[in-house]
Amino acid sequence: MNRYSRRITVWLFLAPALAVYLAFVVAPILQSFFVSLFDWPTHALGPKRFVALDNYVRLVTDEVFWKALSHNVILLVMSLVIQLPLALFLAALLSGRVVARGFFRTVYFTPMILPSVVIALVWEQMYLPGVADGLIVKLFDSLGLPSPENGFLGDPRLALGAVILTISWRYVGFHMVLFLAGIGTISEDLYEAARIDGAGSWQLFRYVTLPSLLPVIRISAVLSIVGSLKYFDLVYIMTKGGPPEHVTELMTTYMYKIGIDQYNGGYGSAVAVGGFLVSMLVVTAVMGMRWHRRASVAETHP
Amino acid sequence: MISRILRYVLLLVFAVVALYPVFWMFTCAVKTQAEASVDKWGLPRSCTWQNFRNVLFESHFPRYILNSVIVTVSAVTLTLIAAALAGFVFARTRFRGRSLLFCLFLGGMMIPVHIVLIPLLKIFGTLKLYDTHAALVMSYVAFSLPVSIFILRGFFEGVPAQIEEAARIDGCSAPRVFWHVMLPLARPALAVVTIFNFVTLWNEFVFALTLLHTPGLSTIPLGMYEFSSERGTNVPLTCAALSISVVPMLLAYFLAQKHIIRGLTSGAIKE
Question: Which one of A14, A26, A142, B78 has the lowest number of neighbouring Cβ atoms within 10 Å?
Answer without folding.
Answer: A142
